[in-house]
Amino acid sequence: xxxxxxxxxVADAAALADAAAQAIVDAAVESVAERGRxxxxxxxxxxxxxxxxxxxxPPLAERLPWDRTWVFFGxxxxxxxxxxxxxxxxxxxxxxxKVPIPGERVFRLRGEAEDPxxxxxxxxxxxxxxxxxxxxxxxxxxLVLLGMGLDGHTASLFPGxxxxxxxxxxxxxxxxxxxxxxxxxxxxxxxxxxxARIIFLVxxxxxxxAVKAMLRDGVALPxxxxxxxxxxxxxxxxxxxxxxxxxxxxxxxxx
Length: 255
Ligand code: 6PG
Fold this sequence. Notes:
three-stranded antiparallel β-sheet
């Protein structure tokens, strides 16, 4: 590849979930072998749900070292954790309630907080504690999962948001007027870009224009600002989402 992200083309949403789940297990096994633990940031929205469901059942559920895994979230809607639109709720129902991960190793963003700014600050403290980060330092997640919206947003970093320019705070509260649930908590780019591995999961024809704008036309959408400092960046896209990309932009043909 030309130094840009690896783009892995898969046939459809089911193949994307298979590829993503396997990539997560591979990253987990490698991280635990190298450092004794695996820290993953889960993405919200609908796309990752099928991936999480595959991790919750054999064979992958038995391969992932849950007792060494630490789970974080990239963003959260400001709703209670049992709300249908909560990213934590989706991950809990699809995965976390079904695998033997110690509860104290699941670090959710407190979307229910009365004061979202305070919740953002609390989560930043949580990250600093979990990674023993020196003051002003950044956590180094082993893997960050991300989705992308039709407008090219990722996590809850939306076009035009002041959060796109945040360079100091690792977690902020945002008001995304265009979003279904506008009040959100989100990681900012610095902790995302400090990760060892970043994987985008993008599926569906409705994403094709944003994928083309991003990966072919170089349009500076928020998702384009995900550029790992020294980690790897992989886009796993299905054929429908990649339908406007030229063939030379795809690293793997669908299996
Ligand atoms: C959220 C997500 C968001 C999501 C994209 C894609 O809270 O909504 O963090 O960034 O990944 O909007 O969502 P879909 O997977 O539902 O298309």
